[in-house]
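Here comes just one.
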Amino acid sequence: MKTRLFYVMAVMVFVLLTPAGLWAQEDANTATSKDKTAVAEPNESFKETLKKAEAGDANAQYSVGDMYYFGGGVAQDYKEAAKWYKKAAEQGDANAQDKMGFVYEIGQGVPQDFNEAFKWYRKAAEQGGAISQFGLGYKCYFGWGVPQDYIQAYIWYRKAAEQGYAEAQFSLGDMYANGFGVRKNNKEAIKWYTKAAEQGYAEAQLKLGQMYDKGEGVLQDYNEAVKWLTKSAEQGYYLAQYELGFMYANGKGVPQDYIQAYKWFNLVAAQEFGQIGSISRDFLAENRMTPSQIAEGQRLSKEFKPKKQ
């Protein structure tokens, strides 16, 4: 139960993985600017790109939109950015359609309009871009700017998942695991979690570890649980680190090893929402470990470096 609670808290970070979330991060760096930068005159690169854009080149129109949006080679101007994004979007440029969705969603350079945002996001997704499809599914799933609709979320997640997009595969697995928008089916959840996990997606690796630990959708297999929890934990994912520490503390799928358990709990304790790790770590230190074992656990956690897969 505690693990699920912390997972829900962690999901709040998931928005940074959507296209809109990524742009929002970039916007934060320019939030103090009001449609102008230090660029006094448009540079030659901008002028050349503008000529192509004015001649109707969709790629150039999108590039001009980006130049105005980020203040690259020309004074930053969100209204001009939206104007050029729209020209490219109306010619069918999927990236521009996605960006039009974004500017309407946050009201940047255009009046905020969630209906318009959804319209443009959908146009981009219908062209087959996995990122756009995932983003649309995500908005439907959480009801961001549109009424919450698990069935539509499932449809768009599945389209992106079938193209091999790991985040969509993980999200589709979650829908099967929880029975949201589709009949609950742990075997299907395992299938999609595995696809995402094999691409190195840490949250999917955690989920696989948990399901092998409990025997949900698969035969219970502590060794397999430890394998996937280790992959996730080694990437620095604190929920997997906590679960792996628990496996070592209790000798599930691995020989009981309080030093390893201490290491993983200590790593959790150093992160946000790390109280559960500090409680478990301190319990081991006070009731199960010698001072030399504690020192070794501290050394191992200090030397730990996350590995990206």
Observations:
- Residues 58-70 form the longest helix (13 residues).
- Residues 200-309 form a domain with the Serine Threonine Protein Phosphatase 5, Tetratricopeptide repeat fold (CATH 1.25.40.10).
